[in-house]
Amino acid sequence: MKGRASFGWLLLSPGFLWLVALVAAPLVLMIFYSLSVKLAPGTPWPQGFTLAQYRRLIDVLYLRIFLRSIAQAGAATVLSLALGYPLAYYIARLPKGKRERLLLLVIIPFWTNFLVRTYAWMVLLRAQGVINSLLLYVGLIREPLPLLYNEWAVQLGLVYTMLPLMILPLYSNLEKLDQRLLDAAHDLGASPAAAFWQVTWPLSRPGVFMGGLLVFISAFGMFIVPDLMGGSRTVMIGNLIQNQFLGARNWPFGAAAALALTVVVLVLALGAERAARLNGGVKP
Amino acid sequence: MKRNWLKGYAWATFAFLYIPILILMVLSFNASRISSVWQGFTLAWYIKLWNSSLLWEAVRNSLIISVATAVLSTVIGTLTALALARNRLPGQIIIEALLYLPVVLPDIVLGVGALVLFSAMGIKLGLTTLLATHVGTILSYVVVVLRARLADMDESLEEAAADLGAGRWQTLWHVTLPILAPGILAGALLAFTLSLDDFILSFFTAGPGATTLPLRVYSMVKTGITPEVNALSTVLLLMTGIATALFAKLTGDSAEKEST
Questions:
Q1: Which one, A276, B47, B72, B201, has least CB within 10 Å?
Q2: ipTM of the complex in this document
């Protein structure tokens, strides 16, 4: 038995070392940075000890960015559920061959580069973009509407880029739904609406949960969409972090913000896993 | 009746997903430089792209990084998955936690973390740092794919090999790995695609000399929305489409084989 364990650790060691060096060590380092006063002048090393970076995080200015990120990620979650659930349900109820073809139509955008998907909306929304050109041509407007570079554009971009992430877990849940349950509900006199709300929806809750969690976490830490589609005033937590590291070069504060994001994400993910287990909604 | 309503809603959602991408593709052939109004068909933007040395450099860097990431994370990921599949190791929870983090944490946290690490150690940013970061993150996804495979695999084959006197390495080499091959290939393709697609990790760890394709797209988009970006996006879209179809076919085929 002992030989087996050492064989196991032998196989594990390259992966283990790589993960320690590039996942664990950076996180530990960031804790040190977040507790320092500033970077020592002219070096990339932290200097001094303080809790001020964390106090600064709850400053009204930054708290607002945090709350705005939560609100936008939350709205993206709800909207992509509203758009994605009927689509996932529709695909899941189709005959097998057709189902797989349509599923591929969801997977392709999922794999399409994030920048490209965001950029596609910039092409549509900008001042000389497709929508403004069309409206001008039809004569509905005289001047281009400011469609891009504001928080509505960011919200749209978030929903657009997150939608496949919502649909895929929903689909894999709904696909397993036993048609006989719905038939039984029908035979017992339930209307389609009643059957949906009392049978399908409760059974699909693990999928909703999983999709919602994935979308919320990804949207919350999003950088590309607000960076490209937001104006100078629409900042989410991802932009804040990026700016502290590459713009303002305030690494200690940036590290504190990144760790705050980490904690929120981990609490959500672990909490959701626990809740799923308690609900018996755990994967087989 | 209800079915029709559902169908309409579903296809409207598909339209929402695809119309922006399709318009982008169409406009990449539009002759006008600034306007979005159709001014005639041209391939000028593709020709311009083809002649851009900056772009070819980005393509080269992207391919180097994606191929190297695929190879490294598949080899390391296979070893890791094998170690975790059959054994209850002391201290296993530590590696489980380490594997979990890159999947659940936002890329931006992993990206700035790697930046801090390399800077603190005085390592100059470039292709090597980029590769190290990609492998560190993408490894976890490969392990997820392979563990799913191993869970489906019939353990009795390995036991039979052991009963017939094969050593651990012999069993691994002659029995486990050949059976696992389609999964390994799928894992490698996944790693390749994730690496090719990655922007955030590269953004923080690439440095000026190691511009990849997504980094190039980003800097082009930041300087202005031009038809060249439309053309480049279209090329990337087609590449993704092919890779996705390949991955679907690969995983679909082997799934069929298993069920027969």
A1: B47
A2: 0.87
